[in-house]
Every structure is written in C-alpha cells, then in structure tokens.
Design goal:
By secondary structure, the chain is mostly helical. The chain has helices spanning about 25-35, 40-55, 65-90, 105-125, 130-150, 160-175, 185-205, 210-230, and strands spanning about 1-5, 15-20. Strands 1-2 form a two-stranded antiparallel ribbon.
Length: about 230
C-alpha cells in the first residue's frame, strides 16, 4: 500500500491510503466483509474459544461455569476494551476506520490495545489453575502486539495477517505439544481462515504482499516464543 499526503476540507495536511491494486467490486465487497468478520480482535476470541471449550486437555475437568467465566474475562479484556477504545478514537475523528488504514492511524490504538493484551496475560498468568497453553497464547498475543508497535515504524504490517498467524501458530503449538491427542483439524481450519483473510486483505488493496507475509510469520513466531517462555 502507498500513502499520499493531501489537504483535507479543513485545510489540514493528512495521510491518505492509496490502493496498490485494482479489483472488481464483486471481489472487493466480499473481501471487505471478510476483513470485518475476521477482524484481528475477533480472532483473539476465536483462539480463546478453541482453548477453553474445544482443546482436548487444556480445560479438562473444569465445569461449564468456570469455562464461560474464563472466556468472558478474555473477551472483555482482550476484545471489548480494545474495540471500545478504537471506536471512541473513531468517534472523535482520531482514526478513519476500525481497520486503521494508515500507519499514523495505528500508533495510539495499538499502544492502548497492547496495554489491554498485557493485562489479559497477567490475569491468566496469575490464575493458579490456568493451563500453560492459555498463558502461552495470551503472552504470544501480547508479544505480537508489541512487535507491531516496532514494525509499524517501518511499514504498515497487516494486523489481520498477524492475527491469522497467531491462530495458525496456536494450532501448531497445540499439535507440537500433544501430537497424540490433538488432531490436524484445528490446524486445517486455521490455515483455511488464514488463506481467506490474507487473500481478502490483498484484494481489498490495503497492503503490499510483504506486509501480509511478514505479519503472518510474526503471528506464528510470537506464539512459539510465548510457549517457549511459559512451558
């Protein structure tokens, strides 16, 4: 993606995202819809949902109420508060869209979101009965967000790609950790989601290919680093 400095209606200099590629509307519209459905914050909820409700060993023996409570804690701290923060910034005109189309748009929202991600990690880390895979996942999310702050200085790395990379990374870590009880289905689903989302971001012309690839790799690597630290 390229960016252009131009004068807005108020006579102020602003940064405007310029698409690199042109696709017909019948491709762009579904791509935009997919981008919203699989927003990076919602992918975090999907990761937590898998670990808490569908991982065969992580929360085995926990009653439904405890599982739901843990999932709500993650959703409130890792999704609701960051999303509300971005929406408030959008409401006051600080950012143009919740998709954060320019590097400048991203600076404050990512820093705020990073604080909530760190808080989410601390919450699950301090639960004495929290599974290692849950601690590793939340740490990996925080590390990925922290990496985004640094990488955003040099390029507009794809947040969607980081999110899908984290999803794939979580599936890989789970499969690596317990190959005898974890099937390949979660990894297959994660790869399919990653393919749809990353392709959608390219079609929506918001990123250069390198920003997609680097984001995807970053998400995977951060999940493995999180597991290496917390295991």
């Amino acid at each position: 993606m390229s960016e252009l400095l131009q004068i807005n209606d108020k006579g102020e200099l602003q940064e405007e995202a310029i698409p690199l590629f042109s696709f017909p509307s019948y491709l762009r519209i579904p791509a935009i819809i997919i981008s919203y459905i699989f927003h990076p914050l919602f992918l975090i909820g999907l990761m937590g949902w898998y670990i808490i409700f569908h991982h065969p060993t992580a929360y085995i023996g926990y009653d439904d109420r405890t599982r739901l409570w843990r999932f709500l804690i993650m959703c409130v701290n890792g999704i609701f508060f960051p999303l509300v923060s971005v929406l408030l910034l959008r409401a006051v005109g600080f950012v143009k869209s919740i998709l954060l189309p320019t590097q400048k748009d991203r600076i404050v929202p990512i820093v705020i979101t990073n604080i909530f991600f760190f808080w989410t990690f601390l919450i699950f880390k301090n639960f004495n009965d929290s599974p290692a895979i849950m601690k590793a996942m939340t740490l990996g999310i925080f590390l990925a967000s922290s990496s985004t702050i640094l990488l955003n200085i040099y390029l507009k790395i794809s947040l969607h790609a980081i999110g899908t990379g984290g999803l794939v990374g979580l599936a890989l870590v789970s499969l690596y950790k317990e190959p005898s009880v974890i099937s390949a289905l979660p990894l297959t689903v994660a790869l399919m989601i990653a393919g749809f989302v990353c392709t959608s971001r390219l079609i929506a012309s918001n990123h250069r290919p390198v920003e997609i690839y680097l984001g995807f790799i970053t998400g995977i690597v951060c999940q493995f680093i999180g597991w290496w630290i917390m295991a």
